[in-house]
Write a structure and sequence with these properties.
Layout (H helix, E strand, L loop, with lengths): L2 E4 L9 E7 L6 E2 L4 E6 L4 E5 L4 E6 L6 E3 L3 E6 L22 H6 L11 H10 L17 H7 L9 H4 L7 H6 L23 H16 L2 E9 L1 H16 L6 H15 L5 E4 L4 E4 L5 E3 L1 E3 L2 E3 L2 E2 L7 H16 L13 E5 L18 E5 L3 E7 L2 E15 L5 H16 L9
Parallel strand pairs: 12-16, 16-17
Antiparallel strand pairs: 1-8, 2-4, 2-7, 3-6, 4-5, 6-8, 9-19, 10-11, 12-15, 13-14, 17-19, 18-19
Helix pairs in contact: 8-9, 8-10
């Protein structure tokens, strides 16, 4: 029987993906969960595994093509025999009846299950057999929480705030704000031009930055942290950490300091539900760290930073940044953040004003630390000073709140022993 695999729901409201690579050929025999396609979504480049075992009968997509959730990707025949005549539902009309739902009824016979790629990956990591899991999602789809429940792990924190990350597009809120752009002039009248199409990721970054700037009244607080002692510790411990396979950097300490300060000032670890008139305080601390890649700025997330030792944060940060730069990050690596840190120190500069990563309400930016003269006790001394910028949503906090929160971060950076719990 011919079975057609449709682009599944990738989570977080993602509605489309761009095909980056097709990893199989027509006629190939593949196993369930073997690599099938590489796609780029609004959040990352991810690998989609095959939900079926069988022979690839028909590939419906090609690299560079953008497909919507529910569109056909690949059709499969049984591994050992010829394909049955293709059903009429296989063409473009298929999105009306997505294939993952019937998959739920095949599980009793050992057939494929309905689960997103990130959920399949989580099941593999936890050693959970998806065929033995009862799906509670729409149409019997297995969710991440179903997998965790089957493995005896606690369910993830509610993801309601995160769902707002990926609206259908910024056009509606921008139009409401009166920011619909006027037509561009014909630049060709003044000289030659070249038009370069924006990548899927670049378009998404542009849309979300415009959305954040249009919806959030940004305010920024500037300060400096004396990181002389902390810098000495990082330098002194670098080789010892390297022998343990850890690249120790200042960023790991920034993340830890921010996470501990968020316990003091939970309004900055939140999202604003303007329609309901409520501030959603998140009782978990998952910090995003901005990573520059050739494709654009991507913000992977390190979970539970407040409870992890600095060495563990450093190890996880290096692995996560490597996956992002190699294009191997999963959707789970990139979602669920509550607060973002961006460090441009390696690139130079004396400071920057970062834009809030909507629907978060604050972001911490730091520039390159430099030795500067400082007056202490009537004496001029040379200290390593780190420029710090806290940008936050003025609807949820006032300037005094932002100043106190920034000081809570700086206080920890200037007393590094407070960051070494579990060191």
């Amino acid at each position: 029987m011919l079975r057609t695999f449709l682009l599944p729901d990738l989570g977080e409201g993602l509605v489309e993906a761009e095909i980056r690579a097709v990893l199989v050929h027509e006629g190939d025999v593949v196993k369930e969960d073997s690599p099938l396609l590489e796609v780029e979504t609004d959040k990352a480049q991810v690998e989609i595994p095959s939900p079926f075992a069988g022979r690839v009968e028909k590939i419906h997509v090609e690299p560079g093509q953008t497909v919507k959730v529910g569109q056909p990707l690949v059709s499969f025949a049984d591994a050992g025999g010829a394909a049955a005549p293709a059903p009429s539902a296989a063409p473009a009309a298929a999105p009306v009846a997505p294939a993952p739902r019937p998959a739920a009824t095949e599980r009793a016979d050992g057939g494929p299950v309905a689960a997103a790629p990130s959920t399949r990956r989580l099941a593999r990591e936890m050693g959970v057999d998806l065929h033995a899991v009862r799906g509670t999602g729409p149409g019997g789809r297995i969710t991440d929480d179903d997998v965790r429940a089957s493995a005896g792990k606690p369910a993830a924190a509610p993801a309601a705030p995160a769902r707002a990350v990926a609206p259908a597009g910024p056009a509606k809120p921008l139009a409401k704000a009166g920011l619909e752009p006027p037509p561009l002039p014909k630049f060709e009248q003044w000289g030659p031009v070249e038009r370069q199409p924006l990548s899927h990721l670049r378009r998404t970054i542009a849309e979300r930055m415009a959305l954040s700037a249009a919806l959030i009244p940004h305010v920024s607080h500037f300060d400096k942290a004396d990181v002389t002692d902390l810098n000495a510790i990082v330098t002194r411990s670098f080789e010892a950490a390297k022998q343990r396979g850890i690249t120790l950097t200042l960023t790991s300490f920034l993340l830890k300091a921010a996470a501990l300060a968020l316990h003091e000032f939970p309004q900055f670890n939140a999202s604003l539900d303007a329609a309901a008139g409520e501030l959603i305080l998140k009782r978990y601390c998952h910090l995003g760290i901005a990573v520059a890649t050739e494709r654009g700025l991507i913000v992977p997330v390190i979970r539970d930073v407040d409870t992890k030792p600095v060495m563990d944060i450093a190890r996880e940060l290096a692995a996560l940044a490597g996956r992002v730069r190699d294009g191997k990050a999963t959707l789970d690596d990139l979602r669920g953040g509550t607060f973002t840190v961006t460090n441009i120190g390696a690139l130079g500069g004396t400071g920057a004003i970062p834009i809030i990563n909507y629907p978060e309400v604050a972001i911490l930016g730091v520039a390159r630390g430099r030795e500067e003269p400082l007056v202490r006790g009537g004496q001029i001394v040379v200290r390593m000073m780190l420029p710090v910028t806290l940008t936050f949503d003025h609807r949820v906090a006032d300037g005094a709140d932002g100043a106190r929160f920034a000081q809570a971060i700086i206080r920890r950076l200037e007393a590094p022993e407070t960051l070494f719990v579990g060191w």
